[in-house]
Amino acid sequence: MHAIQVGRTRRPIAAPDRMWGRVIIRLYSLGLSALAALVGTQCFSQGPPALFQRAKKIGLEARQIWVDASANWYWLVYPEKIKEFCANAKKAGFNEVIIDAKPIVGYTLYPSAIATQMTTWKGIQMPAGMDVLGTMVREAHAVGLRCLANFAIFSEGHSSFDRAGDIWNHPEWASIVAVPYWTDGVARLELESVLKQPKRNIPLFVNPLNEAVRKREMAIMIEVAKNYPVDGLVMDDRLRFEGIGGDFSAEMHQAFTGRFGEPGFWPGSILLPPLKHGEPPRRGPRWPEYQLLRTSIIRDFVGDLRQELYAAGSSVPVGCYVGAWYDKYESVGVNWASDLLPVQYPNAEPEMRFTGEADFLDFLCVGAYYSSAEPYEQPDNKLQTVAGACQRAVEVAGASAFIYGTIYLNDYKTPDQLRKAIRAARENTLGISVFDASYIIKDNLWGVFEEEFKGLNNPPPHAAPSLLRELRQD
Length: 474
What we know:
By secondary structure, the protein is α/β, with parallel strands linked by helices. It has helices spanning 19-38, 50-58, 69-76, 79-92, 132-142, 211-227, 250-260, 287-311, 326-329, 386-397, 415-428, 437-443, 446-452, 467-473, and strands at residues 62-67, 96-102, 120-121, 124-125, 146-151, 155-158, 176-183, 186-193, 203-205, 233-235, 271-272, 282-283, 318-323, 363-367, 402-408, 431-435. Residues 8-45 have low confidence and may be disordered.
């Protein structure tokens, strides 16, 4: 495991700490921004990136179905139900199952040497000796489905259940967040552990700069990659910070000071109290540097993970789920763009361009969680449609990784609405990722997917190990 060094050089042009290096990067990035302004857009001006266009022509397609551990626990504890599920998914035309190996509670769905195994949930006890992950992998492969393991990386507890998660035994892992408190109509920000007010967020986030946390999260993923014949690893939406108000731990203070100098006030130089109840904290004068620090930390984690997997002898594909709302996503400390994309955020540090995580991933499942499928249905909010969100995602990250449009089944009230969403995701990306199996089972939606996927038997793009590398080189 490498020592933590925030903002290491892992980019086409390094983001150096020395003054002249920063000046060169700033001028370079400003030049790109000016060019983008001339062509009338901040994104790619000539349609989808070449990597995406070439991959589309090859004809491979992801058709993924997610299995959330909490929502599906009632049947996941029975091997015969897992077998039935895999048979139904195969018949419907899916080619991959994504099963929680470590859900947001932080427990694992397999016997782990690192984390606590999840054996009881919502009052349902798992049979002795059951290995949910192992059973799902075996049954998926038996019917010709690929099986990927999902990890809620920086979540180690579930606030809806009393003291659920290993975080309660390790309070030093917990993220430190800036929380608004009001006195006589005036707000102030107080720093406190997420454990102090666990109900403010369902996932209980840990500190991404805590060395023990980073080692634990990587070790769990490596454990699965070495011990199970999974076809890929996925990191879900918890590969991020708790929100705009976190993290403000001692480790983050030290990292900020080491890279940018003393902030002046912590967190007062970075965040300002909100002006109204219900609003988030406001960005302060040192926010751009803090923004850069957080996105660097997440990118470096993903880069370290790939190195550790290779060192462990695993070349398994690695993907991530992110929300499609890229233009607001930096509030949780994540830049999921390609490094080829000019900086998109106002007043951001130019070096933020080189903190995109897409360059270290094989694929991105981008959550286009909208009930409207096509832009014409929302002419004033085209990005808040499945097609519009998917198109934006391809612009943002499609030059570096395979993009799969992800839909949330609870957004659709009729089969026709669902069909339109399925088609919008498939037409505008390299595949579809469907959340979640519980809705398909509850509403018996298998037939809709079977009709939409009829006659398809092609694998996902990331199933060809060398394809992404060849497309990137081209």
